[in-house]
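Usage

Read records sequentially. Each one opens with the input sequence:
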Amino acid sequence: MLGVGIDWAEDFHLVAVGRPGEGVVEVARVEHTPAAVEALVARIAGLEADPAEVRVVIETRHGLLVEAPVDAGYTVLPVNPDLVARRRGPARKKDDAEDARIACLLALDQYTELRALVPHGQLAGELRAIARDDVRAARDERRLLNRLRADLAATFPAAMVLAGDDLGSPVVLKLLQRWPTAGELAAAGREEVEALARQAKHGWPQRFADRVTQALAGDHFQARDYLVRAKADTIRLACAQLLLLREQRRSWERRMGELLLGDRRRGRTKQPGDDRGPAVPGGEIYLSFPGLGDRLAARIAGEIGDAIGQFDTPNALQCYAGKAPVTRRSGRCQPFWGGRFRGSLTESWCPRAC
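and closes with the structure output:
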């Protein structure tokens, strides 16, 4: 067997190679270029001709550096960086070469239970990438909304009254993007506000214009002129970013539904057509779960992948998701059952406060 440990980075990687009984025999630096990665695979093939006897340990599950050994037929064992950190010296100091050696020793240790990477198919891989990007976009959306709310509270309190609990709606964002200050909005005519509401597909443009008039007529704090001028462009920029994020997330949601069902949804019923193409295995099952729409179902299906057989038991899948129960012990109280203290962790805990 040949063990390979990789400490990856952006510009270059350190690779340690070893054999059972010999330990680490070679540590080399590999540049992050296609030619260097191909040379690394060729070097490993020269040391071990049987791909099934090559075990590669790396601290990530994704990227071109992972795809190269997987395509070569090697067993890739992704590990958590904390596992490598716990095996460092007493100082716990980060050292790239030492981390590569530790990863190589993990690959050589046959008694260490590491789960081999099962690569996703093309559809499942695309679904996972889109779902993760959508999660990051949702965080960015919340961050920008909080920033916009703070700027409006400081310079344009009437906009907070106008928006209410729906600050992220398209009509409010387009209104603030066009008129980011109270003076500019007050100078705009009612017809312009109604036209903007119709353009944003608001159901009641007249009612929206009335809300704008009532919000501007309220008693609000007046910000300094210099602060209003300074924050106008900031508010306009935040609204433009939020509108782009909203539109992109809607596009991603349609694509996620298409990957789950094999066809995009059509009509008012939002159902796919009869002539469906390739889809992620189990897509309809994920969507059948109560409370799961296209976004949440895509996140679950993308993380599990199209090889659900890699999880032997339901508990294995629960552990992979991070939802398995963990029994903790305080150290000051022993398990209690039937009036006697016992040492089994499977028995119930003492009812007294620990």
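Summary fields computed downstream for this record:
- The chain has 14 helices and seven strands.
- The beta strands are 2-7, 12-19, 23-31, 54-58, 75-78, 336-337, 340-341.
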